Here is the input.
Amino acid sequence: MGLMDGKKGLILNIANDRSIATHIANNVIKQGATCGFGFLPMDNIEKSQRRVKKAMEENGFADAWLHPCDVGSDESIEKFFAGVKEQFGTIDFLVHSLAFANRDYLKKDAGNFTSTPRDVFKQAVDISAYSLIALARAAAPLMPEGGSIIALTYLGATQVIPGYNVMGVAKAALEATARYLAFDLGPRKIRVNTVSAGAVRTLSAMAVGGIDEMFTHTEKKAPLKRNIDPDEVGKTAVYLLSDLASGVTGENIFVDSGFNIVGL
Ligand SMILES: NC(=O)c1ccc[n+]([C@@H]2O[C@H](COP(=O)([O-])OP(=O)(O)OC[C@H]3O[C@@H](n4cnc5c(N)ncnc54)[C@H](O)[C@@H]3O)[C@@H](O)[C@H]2O)c1
Here is the structure.
C-alpha cells in the first residue's frame, strides 16, 4: 500500500534526470501516484521533448503523460490544462518545480545585483513566482475534492546568498504567493506549501554564481555536515502531497541538512 495510492497530479517541469522534479516524480510514483508532466518547449520542441523523455525512460516512467508548458505564456498554460482535463479529468496535486532568471545577473561580482535591469527583474518574478498563481488558478477547478500544491524555493528568499541576487527576490515573492494562495484556496480544501531545498547540482543551479561555495559551506556548517540528496526533497514532497500533511498549509519546510538554522 502506497501513501499516494489513487492520487493523480502534475509535476512541472522536468528538464533532465538531475531535475528536482524528477526526484519528486520518482518518490510520488513509488508511493502509488499517477503523474502528468510538463516540459519547457525550447526553440526546438522535438529536441527538448526527447531530452525529457530520456530522463523519464531512465527513471522508469516513460509512458507518463507529457505536454509542453511555458509558464510565461497564458496560452501555453491554457493548452496544457486543456490536455490535463482530457487526460485526467480531476487531479489531487500540483508540483511547481521551475524557475528562471537571466544568468548575467546571477553573479557574485560587486554591483551585479544593483545593475539588475527592469526587464530581467520582471521576467524572473513572472516565470518563478507569478507562475504559481497562474498554475494554481488553472489547477483549482480540477481539484473538486481539494488538493495539495507545493513549490520549490531556496534560502536566498530570506537571507542574502551572494550570486543568488534577483532569484532571491523572486523566491521571496514565491513564498509570499504560496501563503496568500494557501489562505485563498483553503476554503476549497486546497493546501499550498513550499519546500526550501538545499543546493543540488542541476542545470538551473549551475547558472548561479558561487554555487560551489554553497556546497562547501553546507558540508562545513550545516548540523548534518553534508549536502542533501535530492531524493530527500522527493520524500518531503510525498509527505506534503499525501494525506499525511492534511492539516498543513501555508508552511515552508527546509530540506537543507539544517543549514538555515545556523548563524555562524
Ligand atoms: N538546484 C538547487 O540547488 C535548488 C535549490 C532550491 C530550490 N531549487 C528550485 O527547484 C526548482 C527546480 O529547479 P532544479 O534545480 O531542479 O533545476 P532544473 O533546471 O532541472 O529545473 C528548472 C525547470 O524550470 C523550467 N523552466 C524554466 N523556465 C520555464 C518557463 N518559462 N516555463 C516552464 N518551465 C520553465 C525548466 O524547463 C526546468 O525544467 C526551481 O524552482 C529551483 O529554483 C533548486
In short: Helices lie at 20-30, 45-58, 74-88, 118-139, 165-185, 211-221, 230-241. The chain has a mean pLDDT of 97.
